[in-house]
Amino acid sequence: DTSECRELVGHESAVYSIAYSQDGITLVSASADHTCRLWNVANGTELRIFRGATNAIGCVVFSPDGHTFATSGYDNINRIWHGFSGSCLKEFRGNSVAEDHTFGARSLAYSP
Fold first, then answer.
1. Residue 109 to residues 3, 19, 65, 70: CA-CA distances in angstroms?
2. What distances in angstroms separate CA 79 from CA 2, 23, 53, 89, one per listed residue?
3. C-alpha–C-alpha distance, residues 28 and 69, integer Å
4. What whole-number distance in Å separates Cα of residue 68 and Cα of residue 89?
5. pTM for the full model?
6. Per-residue tens of pLDDT for the chain, all 112 residues
7. How far apart are alpha carbons 41 and 71 in whole angstroms?
8. Nearest-CA neighbor of 79 among 67, 90, 64?
9. What is the pLDDT of residue 103?
10. 95: how many CB neighbours lie within 10 A of its CB?
11. CB count, 10 Å around CB of 35?
12. Exposure pattern of 49-70 as b/e (b: 16+ CB <10 Å)?
């Protein structure tokens, strides 16, 4: 049942962003503890921890198919993660095409 309020315990620092998958049951959270966590909100269980960021993760968004999600961190790296395997599929590092601009985003979106 997802109609009741649940406390999802696991992060060791502030949570900056959350996103629901299309199924309405799976949630991903991004935190200052340098991790993302995948949750089943129906029963409150933590499904997986995603590690690899070297600083806080500021935002997270699920892909439309619900199988991957993107994160942007204060380490100026945007990552695409596979939700089921836990692997990082792609990293976007360094400066963008705009001079003196880094990839550290504070919001993300997928295009349908």
1. 26, 11, 13, 8
2. 28, 22, 9, 7
3. 8
4. 9
5. 0.84
6. 556 777 888 888 999 999 999 999 999 999 999 999 999 999 999 999 999 999 999 999 999 988 999 999 888 888 999 988 999 999 987 655 555 555 555 678 888 7
7. 20
8. 90
9. 54
10. 11
11. 20
12. ebebbeebbbbbbbbeebebbb
The residue type found at 21 is S
Indicate the residue type of 56: A
Six token digits for residue 36: 């993302």
Please give the Cα distance from 65 to 22 (Å, whole number): 7
Residue 57 and residue 66: Cα distance in Å, rounded?
A: 19
Evaluate whether 95 touches 54 at the Cβ level (below 8 Å): no
Specify the residue for token string 């997986």.
48
